Amino acid sequence: MNLTPPAQHDRPALRDYHGYPTYRLDNDHVWLEALDTAGPRIVRFGLFGSSANLLAETPDLGWETTLGRYELLGGHRLWFAPENPDIVAVPDSEGLVLTETETGIRLDGPPEPQTRVVRSISVALVPGAPAVELCHRLTNAGERSIELAPWSITQLPLGGVVRLPQPPAVAEHRLHPNRLLVLWPYTTWEDPRLELCEGQVRVRAEAGPRMKVGSFVEGGVVSYARDGVTLTCAFRPEPGVRRTDMGCNVEVYIGDGFVELEVLGPLVELAPGQEVTLDERWDVAPWRRLSRPGSP
């Protein structure tokens, strides 16, 4: 199997993210920065005309692993479930290959030491819209099968509200359940940040004890609203497949100064040479067209 990416082109001037060089994509609607030599990580994302980063920045957070320190950094990353810290939180400060494509960029990490899994994220700005499309890919470059589920994680600043749409209640009697809400052991039903509403579950992203909840969102659309801007994440819900975490396809975690919006794909047995993908589209609203004086 050939995992060598296409030849790279000349790079534009690099920017800096807390000591890491970044590569920038932009158009008349949005801009995005990915780490140029580490990851794959998307670390900044914003509306054209504004320098505000819609993603959280957590450069001082991390922890020690058997392979060295794992840097949380912030922004968007690709993991895989079920969560096993020894093989999921693999330090990724070097070895990335960034390739320019016709529609954006592709970020390929190296085969990882324990699993030989290769993590990749392809990024494309959507023409004519304040949106970006992401294709997450896990490839088994090893010699043994591995069971996993693609798991994308987006860190966002506190101060907003996550909305997880749910089917509304109906008057007629039906025999089977149609809504799912899962709590992690350190989360209490009495946490005031968790709001059960007709047609949606809301999580207020405020500082406090650690909290994590999960759900199955059959419409494949979740959102985070903060400071007058709503970031919407759309994905394929894929009902009726094997899943981790009691059947969730979306999870929300509140940590030290950030909230994570997480999307989980199906659980698959990935044979040597095989890959599995997880697609997302991010849309930002409200937005307005500005004259373009240059990069924000």
Specify the CATH class. Mainly Beta
Distance between the termini: 41 Å
Question: Overall pLDDT, averaged?
Answer: 92
Secondary-structure element pattern, one letter each? EEEEEEEHEEEEEEEEEEEEEEEE
Helix segment tally: 1
- Measured as a percent range, the helix fraction is under 10%
Give a description of the structure.
Strands 1, 2, 3, 4, 7, 12, 14, 17, 20, 21 and 22 form an eleven-stranded antiparallel β-sheet that branches. A ten-stranded antiparallel β-sheet has the order 8-9-10-11-23-19-18-13-16-15, with no helix packed on it. It contains one helix and 23 strands. It has a single domain (15-285), classed as Beta-galactosidase, Chain A, domain 5. It is mainly β and 296 residues long. It has one helix at residues 85-88, and strands at 15-17, 20-26, 30-35, 41-47, 57-65, 68-74, 76-81, 97-100, 104-108, 117-125, 131-140, 146-157, 161-165, 181-183, 194-197, 200-204, 211-215, 221-226, 229-235, 250-254, 258-264, 268-270, 275-285. The chain is globular and about 55 Å long.
